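Q: For a teaching handout, I want to show students what a protein-ligand complex looks like in token form. Below are the inputs, and the small molecule is iron/sulfur cluster. Please produce the holo structure.
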Amino acid sequence: MTVTAPSDSLHPTVPGAHLLEVEDLSVEFRTEYGTVRAVNELSYHLDRGETLAILGESGSGKSVSAQAIMGIIDTPPGFITSGEIRYQGRDILQMPKEEQRAMRGAEIAIVFQDALSALNPVFTVGAQIAEMFRVHRGTSKKEAMVHAGELMDKVRIPSAKDRLKDYPHQFSGGMRQRVMMAMALALDPKILIADEPTTALDVTVQAQIMDLLLELQADNGMGLILITHDLGVVGEVADRVAVMYAGRIVETGGINEVFGNPGHPYTVGLMNSVPRVDQRGMRLSPIVGAPPNLADIPPGCSFHPRCPRAEVRCREERPLLREVVLGRRSACHFAEEVLDV
Ligand code: SF4
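A: Here is the structure, written as tokens, with iron/sulfur cluster included.
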């Protein structure tokens, strides 16, 4: 049995110890403007029944890592340049293409942010859900449509069976997201990746969709990777959080621990830039500047141009993601000082 311990790894991981293990994953896009290093030596794991939130601003690489898991990175320009994505101990990237295709969708499914563009406008929603059963299970057309109706019922689309023949544009944004969830859950996946599943929806619908997602997760014990920039959603639903910046995890730990006492200046900045009910009347202080161009990531700590604590060392030496206290990791040279321990 091999034990791998890459430099930025969360833990030396015994392959197969977790349901999903992303280890040392790097993804880059080779464009005419240069090489965009979207994901750099990323490592995380997910267990059955667990919710891991991947939190970060736009362009932090959080969605690209999910696309790598799902095998939907267009090559070229995208290339996975290193790493492993192990599902139940087996590296998906080394599986034959046919096996990869069969596994994705059936074992690992994804719900996207923009259901309207993810659904095909010229097919009925019933046909699109039924397609999952026909392609992966070889189910007859009639039987697949029956399953599609049951799934639409399960995700609480009113009058589900009457709406099988409706087209995506005939559904509201929230209902389209439910259709996406029905498609994702069709084959009882062990892992569901929800990529900004509620961003395009209004607040009350967001809450309904998140509640439904958690209920469905509890029903079948799926591991859930929730990709979001919304701290409120993360705080309510996640067990653990991985905060990403410039393609790397900069902090990770249990949700209560990280949000209660953040150990990286970027996490502190994120928390100070959103309103909190327990801090009424306090001024918000947004993080100054903008995330770096991933084709030209600053040397040393990539957060140093925006970090209020930056020192000379930060400009020269990249901090590794390291355990600061038990179960808490931070990629900051001064994590102990940031963390109030
Ligand atoms: Fe800030 Fe330096 Fe820590 Fe980076 S290493 S987050 S620049 S204090």
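A: Two things your students might notice: DSSP finds twelve helices and twelve strands in the chain. The two ends are 37 Å apart (CA to CA).
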